[in-house]
Amino acid sequence: MNLSTLDWTIIAGYMALSLAVGLYLTRRASTSLSEFFLSGRNLPWWLAGTSMVATTFSSDTPLYVTGLVRGHGIYENWQWWCFIFSGMLAVFFFARVWRRLGVLTDVELIDLRYSRKSAKVLRGFKAVYFSCIIHTIIKAQVILAMVKILDVTVGWGKWESIAISSAVVLAYSVMSGYWGVVTTDLMQFVIAMVGAVALAVISVGKAGGMHALTAQLSPDTLSFFPPMNGEFFGTAFMAFLGYMGLAWWSKYSSDGGGVIVQRISSCKNEREGLIATFYYNVANYALRTWPWVIAALASIALYPAVTDHEMVYPTMVVDLLPAGLRGLIVASFFAAFMSTLSTYLNLSSAYFVNDFYRPFAVKDKDDKHYILVSRIMTVVLSILTAVITLYVTSIIGVFKFLIAFGSGTGLVYIMRWFWWRINAWSEISAMLASTVMSVIVYTIFKDLPFYGKLASIISVSTVVWVIVTLLTPPADMEKLKSFVRRARPSGPGWAPVKKLIPEEVEGESLAGAFFDWITASLFLVALTIGIGKALLGFSSGYVWLGVSVVTGFILRKRFASYSFND
Asked: What number of other Cβ atoms are within 10 A of residue 303's Cβ?
């Protein structure tokens, strides 16, 4: 047992506060499905955006980042930094449209966009696919990190850790639904960031200060881009090309994804939804990255011989921090863990009830019935995740598998917003092809490098869904006209539908959105790299920060010209 009485008191106090919030909000969350899953669609941008950040910042994230930095160097963070581009894609192409549609989940889009029996099959299948498969894998990754942390800090076994760490989350998620999630997310994010910064500062001090630390590390470790080492097609550079050229647009969440869409839908209006998504991306990449990266760099100097890189971060908590602060850091792990797990439990339940149970199994019941079923499913899905977690061993391995597993579907999810011919069979074939190819490359061709796996899954899946799209009929024209009137999608791909609608239904400028996406992506890449280089003492960081200032000024001027339909 590595925690003192003071540490346990801090952790217990945090848990009690989370439960109190859940209990307080239970009645409000029970009034309707909209309250239980979307907080009545009335959240301000800062609360929705913070909830986005808190959800994607879990207990596994610092362990994952530590593994990347210790195993390769700072540059390996492009494995997740590459999603800056899809994040900004969501801001400028999809945030306003998602809020305009007013869906409860992203899967609900299927009923608005497609028709015939294939649409019903797709909606039911995706509801089960996301709630029982994809989200279960994500939740298992999150719980595994908490298991590793509790093993080092408390000495609990795997099953004990799974059961105990999930209990409080399950309790307030079942009681208060999405209200409990977003309210506690704000508190959890603050605690988690304070803990991450505190450990980074102390670990650098133990390593002799930043200047002494960087002097001990190799240039490759400190590099922000993969080292060439005289070999253009080396493994590191090819992996980088895989992340930058394939991963960000091919992932199943390429047009926002369920977690982000749920928070956009819960915002007061289109404007708040767009700002929330932009704020989330800035906080997610430029701000929260560096406490973990700096602590990971310090760990190389302090623990050079440790081979399980993912275990080093909690080891530093136990070895380097005094009583009280140690308890705060462990509480911050719980905070990050709870914010992510509660979100995925709530959203998984929303998928199952809103997109499978209510439209196909038990129709026309009142909201109280569906809220009860949602709470039951939250418990069932939690148990399923606990069982899967017993068989998971690597956080980085799970993350890379998830990127590959859904990589054949990302392009079709983007194209459904820009091409009227995309239909339900397009999505069904992409999902099936991606799943089959993932099984093949991870069993038969398991020795392929990651970028090879990614390219194989994407290329085969894309060929399959394009052929299926051309061989199957589009959705009914009346369904497409209704979708265009409601969503007002942009681009020439909707011309055959728009010419049949007498009124003006044009959305935002596609060229303008593309310019803003490029500018915002450059802004965020420059801000992320600039902050990191400045913290590490590299003068080139100020050049990158200068680029972020210029592009940020352009974005501000562009944003002032936006019009919203609220």
From this structure: 16
Of the listed ranges 182-186, 264-268, 484-488, the least confidently predicted one is: 182-186
**Helices 45-56 & 325-352, crossing angle to 10 degrees?**
100
Least confident stretch, 229-233, 342-346, 367-371, 531-535 = 229-233
Locate tokens 């239980």: which residue? 36
pLDDT of residue 399: 60
Query: Angle 406-36-277 (CA atoms, 0-180°, nearest 5)?
Result: 50
Rounded to an integer, what distance in angstroms lies between the CA atom of residue 493 and that of residue 415?
A: 9
Backbone phi, then psi, for 207, in 5-degree steps? -85, 0
Q: Given CA atoms 89, 94, 95, 96 in this order, what sign does their dihedral have? A: positive
- Alpha carbon distance 430, 394 (integer Å): 27
365/3 Cα distance (integer angstroms):
49
pTM of this structure: 0.89
> What is the separation, in whole angstroms, between the first and last Cα of the chain?
55
Ordered DSSP codes for 270-325:
HHHHHHHHHHHHHIIIIITHHHHHHHHHHHHHH-TT---GGGHHHHHHHHHPPTTH
Beta-carbon contacts of 514 under 8 Å, excluding residues fewer than 6 positions away, are none
Integer Cα distance of 210 and 535 in angstroms:
8
For residue 448, the 8-state DSSP code is: S
Measured N-to-C along each axis, helices 312-320 and 289-302 cross at an angle, to the nearest 10 degrees, of 80
Q: For residue range 348-366, list pLDDT tens digits in order.
A: 899 999 999 999 888 888 8
Find out whether 232 and 4 touch, Cβ atoms under 8 Å: no
From CA 533, how far away is CA 222, in angstroms rounded? Answer: 9
Integer angstrom CA distances of residue 416 from 419, 464, 546: 6, 16, 37
Q: Which amino acid is at 134?
A: I
**558 SS3 class:** helix
From residue 110, alpha-carbon distances to 34, 249, 269, 435, 475 in Å are 19, 20, 22, 20, 11
Work out the average pLDDT over 237-254: 86
Return d(Cα 531, Cα 527) in angstroms, integer. 6
Characterise 254 by phi-psi region: left (phi > 0), alpha (psi -120 to 50), beta (else): alpha
Q: What is the CA radius of gyration of the chain?
A: 23
CB 327 within 8 Å of CB 8: yes
Using one digit for the tens of pLDDT, what is the confidence trace for 369-407?
988 998 898 888 888 887 777 766 655 566 666 666 667
Q: Can you tell me the mean pLDDT for 525-529?
A: 97
Q: What is the pLDDT of residues 464-498, one digit of tens each?
A: 999 999 999 999 999 999 999 999 998 899 999 99
Looking at residue 178, its amino acid is: Y
